[in-house]
Amino acid sequence: MTFRWYGASDPVPLAHIRQIPGIDGIVSAVYDVPVGEVWPLDNIRALKALIESHDLKFEVAESVPVHEDIKLGRPTRDRLIGNFAQTLRNLSQCGLKVVCYNFMPVFDWTRTALELKLDDGSTTLGFDADLVNRIDPEQGINLPGWDTSYKPEDLKALLAEYRGVGEDELWANLLYFLKGVIPAAEEAGIKLALHPDDPPRPIFGLPRIVKNVRDLRRVLAVSDTPANGLTLCSGSLGADLDNDIVSMVREFAGQGRIHFAHIRNLKVDEKGNFHETAHKSDCGSLDIGAIVAAYHTAGYDGYFRSDHGRMIWGETGKPGYGLYDRALGAVYINGLWEGLDNARREAER
Ligand code: DNO
Fold first, then answer.
1. What spacing in Å lies between the alpha carbon of 262 and ligand 1's midpoint?
2. Which of 109, 197, 326 to mutate to test the pocket of ligand 1 (most atoms within 8 A of CB)?
3. What are the Cα distances from residue 44, in Å, to 3, 63, 64, 85, 95?
4. CA gap 245, 261 in Å, rounded
5. What is the chain's mean pLDDT, rounded?
6. Where does the pLDDT of residue 146 fall: very low under 50, low under 70, confident under 90, or very high at 90 and above?
7. Ligand 1 pocket by C-beta < 6 Å: which residues?
8. Pairing state between β 123-127 and 274-277
């Protein structure tokens, strides 16, 4: 069981994470290197030393970002793919085992609310499908907590470049990227773990290609090696009610292709609106108990982490990434797992 930590600027201290029962690893990234450049050995070593000084392990990187030029298939991509491969080698040299990444154009996860008030007084992340559909990205995107790293004119230019890139082109660019990095990952003993799109549908006219079971199968079929695997995020895929997470876990964990499990619950409606809830099954639309049981039955021995928590008990901080609710989630998942271990032992008696 791991916990995501955003480095020295994260308001959640490592010392507090260390006190959550059952957590033994941190998932993090080198944040002070521009996207596309190699993560230097010294930076990785320093991060690892800091994490280990709190008696925690650092074996999973989330994420090594994929430069937009790679997703766009621009001529500069060969150098950038080479850099990504070198980052994998450096991470391996420092003892890392799994690298999470995504292939979403321009935007990583998207929400329309970061402080949606729930009946119990907590706040959570929310996605209003109509609101997103009404936004014309050409006019600028104004959502709470929006990635302000893009200036309006830069965003416009980037969106213009994507105009000729549909799902087929994006897929071809993912394929090219995978062919470039899988050999390095294999050699370095790194397991790549592609994170699905969040939400799992096109937004702002941008294509998305990691949305459902067919997409995941297609990615895995590129190369049948543990170096080419998945981060299975229950919440990202779960925002589409047609996605059956339990059967995905059975299939892909059964094949040993899930290297990293993100567990979170959501309340979803048919129109595609959703918000994050507490992890417990009856708090949201996903049967987290059944999902965790499917991992257990498949003999999953990869990494877990609880994902997006609500803000509870007056906590302030990074939306989705506070201490308390994610800690409750981690303890809940570990409790489910212990129960499953016990039930198996009882059945064998
Ligand atoms: C959201 C996270 C994602 C994830 C990236 C992986 O909270 O799960 O931001 O880290 O998509 O590259």
1. 9
2. 109
3. 18, 13, 12, 15, 10
4. 11
5. 95
6. low
7. 62-63, 100-102, 108-109, 195, 233, 262, 308, 320
8. antiparallel
Which residues, including other chains, have CB under 8 Å from residue 125's CB and lie 6 or more apart?
A: 111, 113, 114, 116, 275, 276, 308, 319, 320
Sign of the CA dihedral with 199 first, then 200, 203, and 209 last:
positive
Q: Where are the domains of the chain?
A: 2-348
Integer Cα distance of 46 and 64 in angstroms: 17
**Token digits of residue 306:** 């609880």
pTM: 0.96
Residue 106 CA to ligand 1 centre (angstroms): 13
E strand or H helix at 348: helix 324-348
DSSP secondary structure of 172-223: HHHHHHHHHHHHHHHHHT-EEEEEPPSSSS-BTTB-----SHHHHHHHHHT-
Which class would CATH give 2-348? alpha beta
Q: What pLDDT score was predicted for residue 140?
A: 76
The Cα–Cα gap between 253 and 124 comes to 29
**Helix (H/G/I), strand (E/B), else coil: 263:** strand
Give the separation between CA 192 and CA 162, rounded to whole angstroms. Answer: 25
